[in-house]
Amino acid sequence: MMPISKRSVVYISVSIAVFLWGVSFLWSNSILQQGFPVFSLMFFRMTFAAIVLSIISFSLKKVTRIEKKDWGWFMLLVFLEPFLYFIGETVGLKTLGSPTISSVIISTIPIFALMAGVLVYNERISSFNTVGITMTLPGILLIVFEKGDIGIDKGTGILFLLMGVFAAVGYSLVVKKLAHKYNSYTIVTYQHILGSLYFLPFFAFLDLPGFSLSMLNFGILKPLLFLSVLCSSLAFILFINSIKELGVARANIFTSMVPVISAFAAFMIGQDTMSIRKALGVIVVVTGVIMAQHRKKTASVSSKSGNVATPPLSK
After folding, report:
1. Phi, psi of 269 (to 5 degrees)
2. Do residues 112 and 169 lie in contact, with contact meaning Cβ atoms separated by under 8 Å?
3. Rounded to whole angstroms, how far apart are CA atoms 96 and 162?
4. 79 near 257, Cβ under 8 Å?
5. Which domain, by its residues, includes 41?
């Protein structure tokens, strides 16, 4: 039997991570459709993932000590993502009830992060990137206005998703200050630990009075553990290791396929519909995101140390 090359393992790893992030919208939607409380979903997902990531990161001795002066930045980081981000994504998904629309809007995070980089850090983009950015809006409009109108609920859901997008953009700006000092394992492990503490008061005051352990039945617990163990833990670790070999720019191209996976999977299991207009919109948005992130080889960003900006936790 021919041995699998190291590069093949890297491509398999990043593909698994992207696939898990794609189906994560379906697992979240499944939980919400069963009437499970929103803050309970976010709290338990964050707590389970924090336990798994802590065990892995601390046992591998990947977690470094946070300096006292940086705790404020970490608290701001966690407030933006996962706290605001997950509220925006989860409430938006529950309101829309469409994994396809939700994943497509969330997939525009790199676009807005790129624009923020231009405004805040004076980063330069090419005309090719500009065309990609411009393409995403009509693609989103094709999906959102699939049936020719937009109701109040749909508009509210989109606004919550956009809140998640902008929270993730703010996160990308803050994490850029920390990534040169702390590795990705440290950042993501503390994000989940602190994130579970951020969601705890909301779970305790809003959901706990009417909550019972019987609500954590198999139909809820299975996708919840999938989200925590597979999407927030395993997929992230696979992605980190892939970045070390591929570099940030090339690895992030793979994440552009998340809405394609979400749309196809949601259609296959009956969670969402798929029209020609919606399919065309998904293709246009994905193409635009890929073009917007394209970098010349000499300008691409790579990392061998693991000190890289972390991908969105939603995935």
Report:
1. -100, 5
2. yes
3. 13
4. no
5. 6-299
